[in-house]
Design goal:
Layout lengths: L6 H4 L6 E3 L4 H11 L3 E6 L2 E7 H15 L9 H4 L6 E2 L5 H11 L3 E6 L2 E7 H7 L15 H4 L6 H5 L12 E4 L6 E8 L2 E3 L1 H5 L1
Helix pairs in contact: 2-3
């Protein structure tokens, strides 16, 4: 694993963006067509918000109910967008990205250079690049060797046998199998490692 990997090394330079004035129906169709759960809302090149699939769906369902016939009430992305995704610099280390993902409870960050969005890094990108785990949730899988006589290896070393909680019952850090967010406290629900928010749904 390289410890000098930066955002620039792994960021997607081509990412899905919409403008505040775009019709919400078109943005929702883009979410579906591209199989993503979040779009970056841009004003020029500046990231000013985000449109999550739940926000878009909720607004369209509410508008359809109010219209009575499911007609388009003229909603725009700007009328339902959420706050901007956390920003990082292209030269930031991946460990910095991991900290932002966990601290903000999101599954992606925007790389910003000179005030303009130049790329996106997802939690999956960070995990695939092998960013070191930091903070309280970090565990050394080889540290378990003294307790069991054998070092733990593979997926079970990180996820535990029940998919998100280590054998001692402590929550583990990872990517939620439901919403895709990188969180410090995965829990096991219905055989999946999920974040506390998705467990409640």
């Amino acid at each position: 694993m390289r410890t000098d990997t930066t955002v620039r090394d792994v960021m997607h330079r081509e990412f899905l963006g919409v403008s505040e004035s775009d019709p919400l129906r078109d943005a929702a169709a883009l979410l579906i067509d591209e199989g993503t759960n979040c779009l970056v809302v841009l004003r020029g090149g500046e990231a000013v918000g985000r449109l999550g699939c739940r926000d878009a769906l909720g607004a369209l369902l509410d508008a359809g109910t109010e219209a009575g016939d499911g007609g388009d009430p003229g909603l725009t992305v700007g009328s339902v967008m959420g706050p901007p995704l956390p920003a990082v610099a292209p030269d930031d280390a991946l460990a910095t990205v991991e900290e932002r993902l966990v601290a903000d409870g999101v599954d992606r960050v925007v790389a910003v250079e000179e005030g303009e969005a130049v790329g996106v890094v997802t939690a999956s990108d960070v995990l695939a690049a092998g960013a070191p785990r930091t903070g309280e949730g970090a565990r050394d899988p080889l540290a378990d060797e003294g307790a069991t006589g054998n070092p733990r290896r593979g997926d079970e070393a990180m996820m535990g046998s029940d998919g998100g909680v280590d054998p001692a019952g402590s929550p583990t850090q990872g990517v939620c199998e439901s919403c895709g967010a990188l969180v410090p406290d995965l829990v096991s629900a219905n055989g999946q490692a999920v974040c506390p928010e998705c467990r409640e749904v």
